[in-house]
Write a structure and sequence with these properties.
alpha/beta; about 400 residues; Rossmann fold; 6-stranded parallel beta sheet
């Protein structure tokens, strides 16, 4: 492990600048989903229990360097207090005298929450002067915001290079899960990649075919691969202009020894709505006036066989139009199968991405996956093989 964790740091009496992602949904000034706040609790409680002073740094929304009351972190204080079981003291700025006064006045079992880092234009520009001003407020830097680690901002990258730095518990868990899935996984490794468009996941597919043993392609993306093979996909969502790219990825899979699994049979309908009349056909028999909206039962059985043979699974994206019934059947069945094997200790399963989390929750499979990332863009960039600035900055001697 090239990065340090809280276990490697002396926290007693130290001001611990803790970068978190608490960019939670809010309606009428009230938090409607506290999941992201709940997930940082382990880090904050650990710092408190070891005599440290947690000083939370976070962004909220896109204020673009201006101070906006509707994006102030002050409205999160009640929820933070309830989740942490500790008093939360709010500072009107994330630098300067206002922040210093709050931090200096912290007592036992108290947490400082500094104002939105993005109220300063230098945050998203990774301005060295802003990073220095933040660093002056702390003794240790702890990054617990993997979901913001793909951004080279002052509070995620610049600050990490100015203080002794480590990963928080959430960041640590994320990095360990991803390392187990792509860094040094137990083989065979299976990746399931779905979603609407090949064009949005080119880097992801190009990286995965070099690193995994089997690759299942589902959703609208699969239609593009089928069309690239000369199969008529009717009125299905399909990027016909990406045919050459799809063929190149398929050829690369052959060269690297990665088995590419496309649908064998599909569920088609004439209209995209819940409960629409539908039928199962082989992929080569898709009617010209129909749309492919899900993988068929034979395709699901094929995916289940791949899951059975795998030791490690990486999942990003649904296999069909999971939002509406009955076109959620393939995603639900495959997800439940993976969840069962994971719960029995037969599979390490790591999943991430917005639609993915929603699909796995809808399938009732989320709780049994080994790890589900809520990081979105950072998760995808890691899967694409890209260096994340916020993680790279933690690689210190």
């Amino acid at each position: 492990m090239a990065w340090k964790t809280l276990d490697d740091m002396d926290l007693d009496g130290k001001r611990v600048l803790t970068r978190v992602d608490i960019n939670v949904p809010v309606e009428d000034g009230k938090v409607t989903d506290a999941t992201r706040i709940e997930r940082i609790a382990a880090t904050v409680q650990d710092i408190l229990s070891r005599g440290g002073k947690p000083v939370l740094l976070a962004h909220f929304g896109r204020p673009k360097g201006t101070r906006r009351e509707d994006m102030s972190l002050k409205m999160l204080v009640p929820t933070l207090r309830d989740v942490m079981g500790a008093e939360v003291i709010f500072a009107e700025d994330c630098i300067g005298d206002a922040a210093k006064a709050v931090i200096d006045g912290l007592g036992e079992n108290q947490i400082a929450l500094l104002e939105n880092t993005r109220f300063h234009a230098g945050e998203e520009k990774n301005d060295p002067e802003l990073a220095q001003q933040m660093a002056a407020l702390g003794d240790v830097y702890c990054n617990d915001a993997f979901s913001a680690a793909h951004r080279a901002h002052a509070s995620t990258e610049g600050l990490a290079r100015l203080l002794p730095a480590c990963a928080g518990r959430l960041m640590q868990g994320e990095l360990q899960a991803l390392e187990s899935a792509l860094g040094s996984p137990e083989r065979p490794v299976l990746a399931v990649v779905g979603g609407a468009k090949v064009s949005t996941k080119l880097d992801l597919l190009g990286n995965l075919v070099e690193k995994v043993d089997m690759l299942v392609i589902g959703g609208g993306m699969a239609n593009t691969f089928l069309a690239a093979q000369g199969i008529d996909v009717g009125k299905s969502l399909c990027e016909h202009d990406m045919a050459d790219t799809a063929r190149a990825i398929a050829e690369k899979a052959v060269q690297t020894g990665c088995a590419l699994l496309l649908p064998r049979d599909v569920v088609v309908a004439r209209e995209f709505k819940a409960g629409a009349a539908n039928e199962v056909v082989m992929v080569e028999d898709c009617p010209a006036d129909a749309m492919i909206l899900d993988a068929g039962p034979d395709s699901v059985a094929h995916v289940a066989q791949a899951i059975d043979s795998a030791k490690t699974l990486i999942w990003n994206g649904p296999l069909g139009a999971f939002e509406i019934e009955p076109f959620d059947a393939a995603t639900n069945a495959a997800a439940k199968h993976a969840a069962t094997r994971s719960s029995h200790g037969q599979l390490v399963s790591v999943a991430g991405g917005g639609d993915t989390v929603a699909a796995l929750k809808k399938a009732g499979a989320a709780d049994d996956f080994s790890y589900i990332s809520t990081a979105g863009g950072a998760f995808l960039e890691w899967m694409e093989g890209k260096t994340l600035p916020g993680v790279a900055a933690l690689h210190q001697d």
